[in-house]
Amino acid sequence: MRPIEMRETEKVTSTGALAHAELAPLGEIVVLDELSGRAGSNRSRSGHQQISASTDQEAVLAWLARFADSPNTLANSRREAERLLLWSIGERAKPLSSLSHEDLLMYRRFLANPQPAARWVMAPGRKAGRRSPDWRPFAGPLSEASTRQAMTVLNSLFSWLVEAGYLAGNPLSLSKRRGKAPKPRVTRFLETDLWEAVRGTILAMPQETQRQRAVYARARWLFSLFFLGGLRISEVVGNGMGDFYMRSNHKSGEQRWWLEVLGKGDKQRMVPATNELMVELMAYRRALELPELPQPGEPSPLVFPVAWRRSTHPASVWPEAMTRSAVHGILKEVFAAAAGRWVNEGRGQEQADKLSAASAHWLRHTAGSNLANDIDLRHVRDTLGHTTLSTTSIYVHGEDDARHDAVNASHRISW
């Protein structure tokens, strides 16, 4: 990450209002010196600061640097820190290092309804890039669960800045603490009927032109990877087709395909490449005019740009891996289409809203929930790359209606 820069279009007035309608991403926010945090009221005066930061943005970037090897954590942490920093300057006319406990209570309420929406909320439609003048920090109001997660991230930020000697205290440390509770069950997953709606939407995609066929093939392959492999979005964009390999069973000698994944925390794991996943891989590679099976170490990405085909490129040329945001956009388009089909079929708005909210991680949770219904949790743990079985056990919930029917049928007192 590059050092903090000031951009002329983003000067902040002494009243705190942004002088330009455009909001800059973290690292490009321009502030007057009085709002930089150099003289923040919560700055530590102990003289034992362990980071070289002299401004709030520099301190936040030092905190984010800890997550350089964890793309998901980095993206989530950056987003929450960026939002708070922009709000602190633009709405409270305070540097982050002067925020009080009361300010943070106000910010929590702001997350549930970011106003004025024209300044803070992205316009409907395709998500604007971070360098676009149409970029905004929010896609809309945060749910209660997302708000709690945001405040948890910020609490971690403030605690670290106190430990680093940058801040004198954590303004969130006074928040009400809850007793330690068991890990909640995963709710952000697609029940069987919703997952079938997504599959049906992909199968109904038009395939009349060459481009339509390419769009269909990529969508089908992408959803196969997420569901059958249980992969994270960072793992889809960060690994390649050369990571598929075949290994013989040491007892039977039977050949089995695996996908070696470099995942979260730079941990490697072997994901079983099921027969179904290999069939989908071969179909996708045929659509790209490639040999059905990749060569060991083949430097090709798992997902290709839709216009790429071997006949239009030299044998030694491979495309760059797609970005996280590009893959995210493809998934969201399919989920939105599935939600539209759901409503058009008269099947209810609530479930359609759930389809619209789904993302790559929902597919991973859906895969985990499906696996946990049928196989040993240790196998689920190793396939998904969890550290402990306690993490995997959050998928042991079944679908509530099915659970109700099963208990109703078998759990009786029989007086």
From TrEMBL:
Q: Which UniProt keywords apply?
A: Cell cycle, Cell division, Chromosome partition, Cytoplasm, DNA integration, DNA recombination, DNA-binding
Question: Major location, coarse class?
Answer: cytoplasm
- Gene3D superfamilies listed in its UniProt record: 1.10.150.130, Intergrase catalytic core
Record-linked CDD domains: DNA_BRE_C
Q: Record keywords: Cell inner membrane included?
A: no
Q: Which residues form the Tyr recombinase domain?
A: 185-409
Q: What is this protein called?
A: Tyrosine-type recombinase/integrase
